Structure to design on (1141 residues):
């Protein structure tokens, strides 16, 4: 079951429907949850109706046996209501989680092909996407199951009332539809509008708080703290005002719901009395109508949930529909084998109107080490992206062992060209697992050797938990220098034929930077290496220094090298 | 953890009236529900004037709708007021005590407070109503049918008792699961954020299966927790519905024997659920309540965090104790001189003159020691330093030597642990008005280029801003921006390069036109071209001012009257280049 089989590719359906289509394999479980939910609500309605029947009938002083069934039914309904509620919640949560696994994998597979797309670089955006994906759980538990269950139970109540008195059933149907459809839609509309207004104010507040805290020293030094705090208070007042208006609107929804329920019961009562119904059916009719509104009470919240989920679904399907930046060739060339030679001739990459790389030549022959230097924005990382097959050339050629780089499967290219990307990510696990990521089959000896080359071994062994030390989310439990060295050790462990180190010393202070540069130059001796850095210092040992500026080679020098 | 935090009421003062109103309207609703039950029973029993009863019923319906509207509005209003109060306190606190990541504070101040809505608008009023409503219903029931009232009175306390028993059983299990759930829940985000790295190592595709497995493990763990957690809801539901069923059967059997009139029986049947309803509502809102308290605790913990050592605003006067006292007193004389001497400097800087005024008095540090929390070695160790008016002092040293701390002391941002300064008795605003400071990584504020240059002089004329930019070497690139000085620099000034940000910070300092200039690594992290432009601007800015420039870059010593080395928090004089 995939999107492709449920949708003809040409037709782009509503994102929410596409998301719901993903739940099709779990149809059985969801139907079960809806049935359990409907039974719960129906039991609640029936409890009051049967109790009413019991009392009205008892008032006629019949034989006790005439009431036996009703007495048993009342008890059974009392128990059934709790048990079915329990079952409904468990089944719905379980099904929602199963759908979530499917959505996560689907989104991940797509992201895996998209990354590193420039639009997806921002961590905030990814975090948003992940929370969108996780929000699909709520869609099923709170947005889909309750309305379906309410429709079933409400329909049942209407049927019972109509069986007693047709106009009574019709009145109840009208009341339930208004309270169960119109009021929730109104609530959802209000929630959407409030959400838009609030989002803008929140964004402003976030910017102001960032300025206030990250710029606090400057605000203080320049006597501008008061003005900045005034700005925050103004935004806070806006937020409170939005909240006040949306509170009044939501309250109107609640009042309207109560009014509809009350009027409907009143109308049913009036119709029943006018029809001169005998006591017993009249009691059952009115009490059923009274209890039936229990079915619609969760619906305004459900409508708001669905409306929120719609926005999340749109963002998810937006990612799923994004074209792949570097598609794999249909018939890839046979995987390249070491030793590896990479040549770029006149390489050009454009991002929109900007030429990130513009006519760059580069030769990486076995054992040769090239440093690429330049200010930020000079095209250094784009160069790395081209070699790692994260970006395609717009002009010029890139060859690997004489074959066009684009002819290979990108994964095969990354088997021989690898290393340490800019801003290497450290996963929320142990040091060992973070390192083994590069080579899952690595032995402890190989791990130690890589750590030693990155000058990390001594530090690891000094830790109380050693190799099993957790590094924390985003590696925040270890220092920036340790993170960079961990990334370097990972690259050395992977030991690709061509090693790319993208800004391995960025964000470090001067002494640490110098030490790490020296260490990595000694660790890469004899390896084919592309070292990307903004800092020319300490590069005497490489074979060639290429200075990039605005995507062009500004200078090529062969440094007065130390003896090799 | 309990779904109540005793600290919360103190921060919810603004909402007290609204909360009281919410509860009052809740009680009114209960009263109207009981009235409705009585009127319904009356009509269903076929007694008396149906038309009058129906009219009364209509009034009750209208009353309920109004009460529902008012209750909801005041409940949500209360929540909004509490959020605003906490938000302002939180942000004010974060400003007073730096060190929290701005993003974290911003998230807490916006989405982090959302969970409080359910807490204040739903859980808290329901909690109060759960104590009051059953008693009111019980009183009415006792007046109608004492035996039914007795059944309700006996079954009602069973609910809290069983809830506590179930809660005790499940709490330990739930808490054990919580950490595991959090870890499993965070896995997907961790993998997605690390995708580029995974891809470089060709590990990305293999992760899809792992995501499926971990999500399945997360599901199993969550379901284990939920099976237990939902038990309390099950018990609640069972007890309350069975209690109502018990009343129904009891009433029905007594009707049968003729011991109870029909109308009374119907009334009791309709009012009995109302006794249990508030308890069920509290149960239904329990998770919302817990989430609200958890969210509130995160905020309150930040608001009430204990005072960190060091890194604090200096008080009006530094404490002088023990053997430091004579030095402080001796310095006191110098301070008075400094204060009167700089009076003219302050006046001059209030009316910008395009540079050229000096501080008028020497800046002195005497045996200043600063220690950062959690560090054993002092950041500054017994530093004594005098900068004469108009003198240009360059302090060199490696990263971590204490250079930035020295500037923080000179700014008055950091209070020395011991030692004294010549400016410690001058009020902070007055002292800072004499200083222009260019930090190592200047922060640009969301807003226009002109707003950023005007930071210290919000009323400066456009011409003054332009002059400052020209002197800072920023005029050219600003002119090339789409809207010139009106261009929005983006959050954190990210639309500009680091060299451009540095030049805007210098323009700020030119416009500030203060007699004392403090500079922190003005050309570090800049490429050669940017460094050259910034260097020229800094040299222009230094002219005629008292300057302290800290840097690891030895090239700056050429611009100095005097050079001092700083290593591991200790000063040593050096020859100027």
């Amino acid at each position: 079951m995939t999107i492709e089989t449920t949708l003809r590719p040409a037709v782009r359906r509503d994102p929410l429907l596409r998301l719901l289509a993903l739940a099709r394999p779990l149809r059985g479980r969801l139907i079960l949850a809806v049935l359990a939910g409907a039974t719960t609500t129906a039991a609640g309605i029936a409890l009051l109706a049967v109790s009413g029947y019991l009392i009205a009938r008892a008032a006629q002083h019949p034989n006790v046996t005439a009431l036996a069934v009703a007495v048993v039914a009342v008890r059974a309904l009392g128990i059934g209501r709790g048990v079915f509620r329990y079952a409904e919640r468990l089944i719905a949560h379980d099904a929602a989680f199963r759908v979530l696994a499917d959505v996560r994998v689907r989104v991940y597979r797509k992201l895996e092909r998209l990354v590193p797309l420039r639009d997806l670089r921002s961590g905030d955006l990814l975090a948003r996407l992940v929370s969108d994906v996780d929000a699909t759980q709520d869609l099923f538990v709170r947005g889909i199951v309750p309305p379906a269950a309410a429709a079933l139970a409400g329909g049942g109540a209407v049927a019972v009332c109509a069986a007693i008195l047709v106009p009574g059933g019709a009145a109840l149907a009208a009341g339930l539809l208004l309270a169960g459809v119109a009021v929730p839609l109104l609530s959802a509309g209000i929630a959407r509008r409030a959400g838009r207004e609030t989002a803008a104010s929140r964004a402003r507040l976030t910017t102001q708080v960032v300025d206030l805290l990250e710029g606090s020293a400057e605000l203080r030094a320049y006597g501008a703290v008061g003005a900045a705090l005034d700005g925050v208070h103004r935004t806070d007042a806006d937020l409170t005002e939005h909240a006040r208006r949306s509170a009044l609107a939501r309250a109107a929804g609640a009042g309207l719901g109560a009014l509809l329920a009350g009027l409907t019961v009143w109308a049913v009562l009036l119709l029943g009395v006018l029809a001169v119904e005998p006591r017993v059916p009249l009691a059952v009719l009115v009490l059923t109508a009274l209890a039936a509104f229990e079915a619609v009470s969760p619906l305004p919240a459900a409508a708001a949930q669905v409306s929120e989920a719609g926005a999340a679904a749109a963002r998810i399907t937006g990612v799923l529909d994004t074209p792949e930046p570097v598609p794999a060739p249909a018939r890839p060339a046979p995987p390249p084998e070491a030793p590896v030679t990479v040549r770029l001739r006149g390489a050009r990459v454009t991002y929109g109107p900007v030429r990130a790389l513009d006519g760059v030549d580069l030769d990486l022959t076995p054992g040769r080490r090239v440093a690429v230097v330049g200010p930020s924005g000079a095209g250094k990382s784009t160069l790395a992206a081209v070699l790692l097959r994260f970006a395609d050339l717009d002009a010029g050629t890139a060859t690997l062992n004489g074959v066009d780089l684009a002819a290979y499967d990108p994964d095969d290219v990354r088997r021989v060209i690898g290393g340490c990307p800019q801003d290497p990510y450290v996963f929320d696990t142990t040091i060992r697992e973070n390192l083994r990521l590069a080579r899952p089959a690595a032995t402890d000896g190989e791990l130690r050797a890589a750590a030693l080359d990155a000058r990390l071994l001594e530090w690891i062994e000094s830790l109380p938990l050693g190799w099993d030390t957790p590094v924390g989310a985003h590696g925040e439990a270890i220092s920036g220098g340790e993170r960079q060295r961990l990334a370097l050790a990972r690259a050395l462990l992977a030991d690709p034929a061509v090693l790319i180190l993208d800004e391995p010393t960025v964000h470090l202070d001067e002494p640490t930077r110098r030490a790490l540069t020296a260490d990595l130059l000694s660790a890469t001796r004899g390896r084919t290496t592309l070292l990307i850095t903004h800092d020319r210092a300490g590069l005497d040992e490489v074979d060639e220094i290429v200075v990039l500026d605005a995507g062009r080679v500004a200078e090529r020098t062969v440094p007065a090298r130390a003896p090799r | 953890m309990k779904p109540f935090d005793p600290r919360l009421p103190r921060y919810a003062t603004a909402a007290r009236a609204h909360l009281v109103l919410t509860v009052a309207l809740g009680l009114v609703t209960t009263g109207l529900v009981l009235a409705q039950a009585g009127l319904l029973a009356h009509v269903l029993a076929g007694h008396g004037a149906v038309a009058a009863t129906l009219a009364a019923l209509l009034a009750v319906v209208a009353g309920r709708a109004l009460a529902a509207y008012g209750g909801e509005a005041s409940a949500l209003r209360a929540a909004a007021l509490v959020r605003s109060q906490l938000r302002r306190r939180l942000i004010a606190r974060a400003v007073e005590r730096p060190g929290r990541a701005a993003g974290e504070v911003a998230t807490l101040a916006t989405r982090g407070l959302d969970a409080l809505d359910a807490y204040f608008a739903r859980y808290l009023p329901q909690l109060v109503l759960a104590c009051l409503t059953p008693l009111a219903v019980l009183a009415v029931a006792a007046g109608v049918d004492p035996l039914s009232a007795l059944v309700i009175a006996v079954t009602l306390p069973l609910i809290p008792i069983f809830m506590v028993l179930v809660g005790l059983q499940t709490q330990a299990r739930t808490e054990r699961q919580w950490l595991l759930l959090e870890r499993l829940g965070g896995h997907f985000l961790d993998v997605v954020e690390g995708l580029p790295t995974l891809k470089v190592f060709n590990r990305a595709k293999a992760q899809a299966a792992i995501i499926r497995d971990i999500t399945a493990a997360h599901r199993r763990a969550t379901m284990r927790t939920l099976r237990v957690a939902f038990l309390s809801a099950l018990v609640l539901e069972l007890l309350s519905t069975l209690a109502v069923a018990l009343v129904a059967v009891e009433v029905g059997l007594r009707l049968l024997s003729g011991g109870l009139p029909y109308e009374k029986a119907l009334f009791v049947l309709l009012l009995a659920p109302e006794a249990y309803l508030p308890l069920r509502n509290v149960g239904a809102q329990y998770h919302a309540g817990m989430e609200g308290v958890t969210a509130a605790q995160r905020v309150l913990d930040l608001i009430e965090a204990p005072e960190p050592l060091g890194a604090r605003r200096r008080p009006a006067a530094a404490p002088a104790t023990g053997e430091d006292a004579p030095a402080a007193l001796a310095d006191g004389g110098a301070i008075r001189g400094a204060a009167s001497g700089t009076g003219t400097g302050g006046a001059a800087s209030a009316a910008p003159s395009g540079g050229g005024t000096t501080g008028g008095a020497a800046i002195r540090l005497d045996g200043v020691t600063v220690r950062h929390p959690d560090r054993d070695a002092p950041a500054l160790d017994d530093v004594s330093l005098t900068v004469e008016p108009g003198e240009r002092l360059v302090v060199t040293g490696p990263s971590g030597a204490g250079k930035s701390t020295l500037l923080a002391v000179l700014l008055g941002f950091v209070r020395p642990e011991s030692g004294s300064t010549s400016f410690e008795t001058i009020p902070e605003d007055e002292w800072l008005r004499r200083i222009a400071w260019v930090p190592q990584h200047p922060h640009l504020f969301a807003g226009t280029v002109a707003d950023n240059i005007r930071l210290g002089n919000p009323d400066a004329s456009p011409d003054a801003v332009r002059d400052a930019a020209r002197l800072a070497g920023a005029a050219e690139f600003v002119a090339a921006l789409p809207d010139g000085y009106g261009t929005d620099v983006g959050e954190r000034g990210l639309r500009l390069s680091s060299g451009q940000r540095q030049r805007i910070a210098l323009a700020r300092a030119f416009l500030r036109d203060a007699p004392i200039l403090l500079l922190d690594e003005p050309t570090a992290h800049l490429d050669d071209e940017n460094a050259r432009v910034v260097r020229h601007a800094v040299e222009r800015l230094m002219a005629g001012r008292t300057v302290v420039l800290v840097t690891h870059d030895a090239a700056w010593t050429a611009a100095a009257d005097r050079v001092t080395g700083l290593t591991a928090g200790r000063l040593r004089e050096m020859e100027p280049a």
